[in-house]
Design brief:
Layout: E1 22-26, H1 38-41, E2 49-53, H2 55-63, H3 68-90, H4 93-119, H5 122-134, H6 137-194, H7 202-242, H8 245-248, H9 271-279, H10 284-292, E3 305-307, E4 310-316, H11 323-327, H12 330-336, E5 344-348, E6 354-360, H13 373-376, E7 389-393, E8 399-402, E9 409-413, H14 419-431, E10 437-442, E11 458-461, H15 465-488, E12 508-513, H16 515-519, H17 539-550, E13 556-563, H18 572-576, E14 580-583, H19 589-596, H20 598-602, E15 617-621, E16 633-638, H21 643-659, H22 671-679, E17 684-686, H23 687-697, H24 702-705, H25 709-718, E18 724-726, E19 729-733, H26 734-748
Parallel strand pairs: 9-13, 9-14, 10-11, 10-12, 12-13
Antiparallel strand pairs: 1-2, 3-4, 4-6, 5-6, 7-8, 7-16, 14-15, 15-16, 17-19, 18-19
Helix pairs in contact: 2-3, 3-9, 4-7, 5-6, 9-12, 14-21, 15-17, 15-23, 22-23, 22-26, 23-25
The structure holds adenosine-5'-triphosphate.
Length: about 750
């Protein structure tokens, strides 16, 4: 427990004579007692303050000497309150009158500001500004919608007012006519009853008399009524201006402060502050239990320790309260600690009935983190089998590295939160391992993955159905490769499974960014099977499932990045198939559950509580992730590797891969002859089917393993075989291959 330096010994209460009843209080009034610094509350010299009795505060002091900070803050508060109350007693009359006038004037300001607030869009503007500053876009949109609705309501009311004078005159005329008729009817009844015709107008005369009297009263005594009403009004204004909120509430007094003008104060997190924040969580049982503690709650806390860009403290909750109650009040707790909600994390500690609070330094999470070691280290090496990919830093600022060997991966998040960058950072690292192979489909196609053009065996870039079809075929080819590996595996020789570095079993990463595009693709193949969708007939879905089920053991893994997960664009079976699951900011808790799984969210993972402005910050869970003790997920602020840095890294990775000792056979195969062989008795076959037959035909010939439909078409073209579309699908015709072979034979003879 730390103490504020420089606190005079008598302020702790320990050295004060027990009969002392006087302390010195600062003369300066502090408007915000909770933020009064210890120095202002701690009197240093008698002449600096006003002498007043403070027995109750002193008593409180003695009972809380174990928490000096807390006590001193309370003293500060007490001092302010007492000094404030003592003001009128010690002040002179002139100062008192001046104060009253000031308070009345301030009251006018308060009432006017309140009126304006209630009758203009000012409140909405203010809330929108606050939401914007906090980056809370959902709240911003909500207030925007409310502002529009309010403007419409006002407009409708103004239009009603325009039509109202006519209506008012009409209503008045009808009202007067009805009253006159009523009075006449009454007069007639009286006249009949009394047998006196003069009574007919008597009720009307009575009413006129009453009006005359009221006029006389108003002219004779109206001045008193006016004086009385004015006095009441002034008293009301004085009370409004006199309330402390009049000076502290920026919205209703003085010129309005814009939310962004407010400087955020990163006050140190002291034990007293934490206890006070817990006490004011709005949980009566917790408050009462803290108040009943002899040490004022200090015993609940572990020492507050520095933890990365914030501090960490364990709180052992009193009996009768539970950790869930505190976790549910995260926003309140954060605000009590002068932090944003996203700057406070509450975990259940391994100790019973104990929560672990991590409280960021105010604004610290908005700062970018350092560059990736991959960028900084010019000599970067990687081994997916034994190494870990540097990804970012956790909230405690410790490096986070992922173990990726034989791991399927899924990254989800709202658009533009950094999903591609986070996924690409891992792929870039893996590319530094020369044994790795990549097949990449970027279903956005804006060049985010273009730097892999010389590294990946397959690179598909684009968002159309044709690109989805190519991506699906890429997955299906990977399934074939997986099957080949499974069937060709020598179980007798390798009883412990595929060893690292086994030729033909190189780590193959099948990567699909923007995978939601594939699931949502409506295209059908010639057999009316859909490429997209979530049914077992869906080709993309089926291939993804197969890789998830069996790929890991033979080093074929699927890494997918997908936007805004839903059951439609990310079917349950596919998301559950990933070993490592990461989520950047998503809109709702149910999306967080889709991204990370039920368990992780049940145990506290909350990517939906990340903020929109925290790009690149994600929650990750899975076996390849090192999590804090007792936790199943970790919050990571990922290193950002931008496009040009990624390009430079990819070039370096290319060089490293080129330095790899040649393991490829010197064998040179005859493409034209091989294509002719695999075409067999077919007249024509789709280009991608030719590729897959070639891969099978010469399974250990790397150039065929790297082929795709486009590169095959290019190479066949060099041999004089043109690939043309049949029903929109690139197709190889046997006749053309045969003709090219004949032509070659003829020309070489
Ligand atoms: N780790 C990071 N730190 C800081 N900023 C980042 C980080 N990652 C991404 N960004 C910012 O977010 C922007 C979007 O990144 P990225 O393209 O990776 O997002 P995305 O989620 O893949 O978007 P979309 O789904 O719309 O394609 C980047 O241009 C960059 O400005």
């Amino acid at each position: 427990m730390t103490r504020h330096d420089g606190a005079p010994p008598d302020m702790t209460g320990a050295h004060q004579p027990e009969d002392a009843t006087v302390v010195y209080l600062p003369a300066t009034r502090t408007d915000n007692p909770t933020t009064a610094s210890p120095d202002t509350s701690a009197p240093s010299a008698p002449d600096a303050g006003t002498e007043v009795e403070l027995a109750p505060a002193r008593e409180a002091f003695n009972t809380r000497r174990l928490v000096p900070e807390q006590t001193r803050e309370r003293m500060a508060h007490g001092a302010v309150v007492v000094a404030h109350r003592a003001g009128p007693v010690v002040g002179n009359a002139a100062r008192g009158a001046g104060g009253v006038v000031r308070d009345v004037a301030r009251g006018v300001g308060v009432v006017w500001a309140r009126y304006r607030d209630n009758h203009s869009a000012a409140r909405y503007e203010r809330m929108m500004q606050a939401a914007e500053v906090e980056g809370d876009h959902e709240r911003l949109l909500e207030w925007e919608a409310r502002a529009v609705a309010e403007k419409q309501r006002r407009h409708a009311r103004a239009m009603e007012w325009l039509a109202s004078p006519l209506k008012l005159v009409g209503a008045l005329a009808v009202g007067i006519a009805s009253i006159v008729a009523l009075l006449l009817a009454l007069g007639i009844i009286l006249a009949i009853g009394d047998g006196d015709i003069g009574q007919v107008v008597a009720p009307i005369a009575g009413v006129l008399e009453a009006i005359r009297w009221a006029w006389w009263f108003a002219t004779a005594y109206g001045i008193f009524v006016v004086l009385g009403a004015t006095t009441l009004g002034l008293v009301y204004l004085y009370r409004q201006g006199h309330q402390p909120q009049a000076t502290t509430d920026a919205t209703w007094a003085g010129p309005g402060r814009r939310a962004e003008d407010r400087v955020r104060e990163s006050e140190p997190v002291t034990p007293s502050k934490v206890v006070d924040a817990l006490k004011h969580l709005g949980n009566a049982r917790l408050r009462k239990a803290i108040e009943a503690m002899a040490d004022g709650g200090a015993g609940m806390l572990s020492p507050i320790v520095l933890a990365g860009t914030g501090v960490e403290v364990d709180v052992e909750l009193p009996r009768g309260t539970n950790t869930e109650e505190v976790k549910a009040k995260r926003r309140q707790l954060a605000e009590n600690l002068d932090r944003h909600e996203h700057e406070v994390f509450i975990d259940t500690s391994s100790a019973a009935r104990t929560v672990r609070l991590w409280i960021a330094d105010a604004g610290a999470l908005d700062e970018p983190i350092d560059a990736s070691p991959l960028v900084v280290d010019g000599e970067a090496h990687a081994s997916v089998h034994s190494g870990r990919a540097p990804w970012g830093r956790n909230l405690r600022n410790d490096p986070v590295e992922l173990f990726l060997w034989q791991m399927h991966l899924l990254i989800t998040g709202k658009s533009n939160m950094g999903k591609t960058a986070a996924l690409r950072a891992l792929v870039l690292w893996a590319a530094f391992d020369p044994t790795t192979r990549f097949r990449i489909a970027d279903l956005k196609g804006l060049g985010d993955w273009h730097m892999f053009k010389n590294i990946a065996d397959v690179l598909i870039e684009g968002p159309t159905d044709a690109h989805v079809i190519a991506a699906t075929e890429m997955l299906e080819d990977a399934v074939e490769e997986m099957d080949r590996r499974l069937q060709g595996f020598d179980k007798a020789k390798y009883p412990n499974g595929v060893p690292a570095g086994l030729p033909g079993y190189e780590p193959l990463f099948v990567i699909v960014d923007e995978a939601q595009v594939a699931f949502m693709c409506p295209a059908l193949d010639e057999h009316k099977r859909p490429y997209g969708g979530q049914k077992t007939t869906s080709r993309y879905f089926a291939a993804a499932r197969k890789i998830h089920n069996q790929g890991r053991a033979v080093n074929v893994v699927l890494w997918q990045g997908t936007q805004d997960p839903t059951d439609q664009n990310l079917p349950k079976m596919v998301r559950e198939g990933a070993h490592i699951r990461a989520s950047l900011h998503v809109g709702t808790e149910s999306q967080a559950r889709m991204g990370l799984g039920e368990n992780a969210v049940n145990e506290g993972a909350a990517p939906h509580e990340l903020k929109q402005e925290h790009k690149g910050t994600l929650v990750v869970t899975g076996p390849g992730v090192t999590c804090p003790p007792g936790k199943t997920s970790e919050i990571v602020r990922t290193h950002y590797i931008g496009g040009s840095e990624a390009t430079a890294l990819a070039e370096r990775a290319e060089q490293r891969r080129a330095e790899r000792p040649a393991t490829e056979p010197d064998e040179q195969r005859d493409l034209l002859a091989d294509v002719h062989t695999v075409l067999g008795s077919d007249d024509h076959i789709r280009t991608t089917d030719v590729v897959s037959r070639l891969r099978k035909h010469a399974a250990h010939y790397p150039p065929y393993q790297r082929l795709n439909g486009t590169t095959l078409a290019e190479q066949l073209d060099e041999h004089g075989v043109s690939v043309t579309r049949r029903d929109g699908i690139p197709t190889v015709y046997t006749e053309r291959v045969r003709a090219a072979l004949a032509h070659r034979e003829h020309t070489t003879d």
